[in-house]
């Protein structure tokens, strides 16, 4: 029973690692690229083909120029999803902000009177 529990915990930890992993286009294989939201089999194939043909991507501009269908908007989304070029996210791409509560926080309590 304990072995099954440990296996379940290890599996959970491994999948969480994949969810937050950063993937560099110059080092990733097809499976790693497919794991990035917004990159499908066709795009991962195009990335790998272009990387084999022209060498590693120098920066995001080089990546966008060489991979068909990746414009500014798509590059921003891919970067926010964890794709990197030479270990760097795209400039201006930010991780999704945390949701904040729209409920008002209420008035602070009045300070007690000093005597």
From TrEMBL:
Superkingdom of the organism of origin: Bacteria
GO cellular component, one term: type II protein secretion system complex
Pfam families listed in its UniProt record: HHH_3 (PF12836)
Gene Ontology biological-process entries: protein secretion by the type II secretion system
Signal found in the keyword field: yes
UniProt-listed InterPro entries: Endo/Exo/Phosphatase_dom_1, RuvA_2-like
UniProt KW Lipid biosynthesis keyword: no
Keywords assigned by UniProt, alphabetized: Signal
Biased composition (Low complexity): 93-104
Annotated region (Disordered), positions in chain: 89-115
Annotated signal sequence range: 1-21
Transmembrane portions of the chain: none
Record's protein name: Helix-hairpin-helix domain-containing protein
UniProt source species: Massilia polaris
Upper lineage: Bacteria, Pseudomonadati, Pseudomonadota, Betaproteobacteria, Burkholderiales
């Amino acid at each position: 029973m304990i072995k099954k529990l440990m296996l379940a915990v290890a599996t959970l930890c491994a999948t969480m690692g994949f969810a937050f992993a950063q993937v560099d286009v110059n080092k990733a294989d097809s499976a790693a690229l497919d794991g990035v939201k917004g990159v499908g089999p066709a795009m991962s194939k195009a990335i790998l083909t272009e990387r084999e043909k022209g060498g590693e991507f120098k920066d995001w501009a080089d990546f966008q120029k060489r991979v068909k269908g990746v414009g500014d908007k798509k590059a921003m989304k891919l970067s926010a999803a964890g794709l990197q070029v030479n270990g760097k996210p795209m400039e201006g791409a930010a991780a999704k902000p945390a949701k904040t509560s729209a409920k008002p926080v209420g008035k602070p309590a009045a300070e007690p009177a000093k005597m």
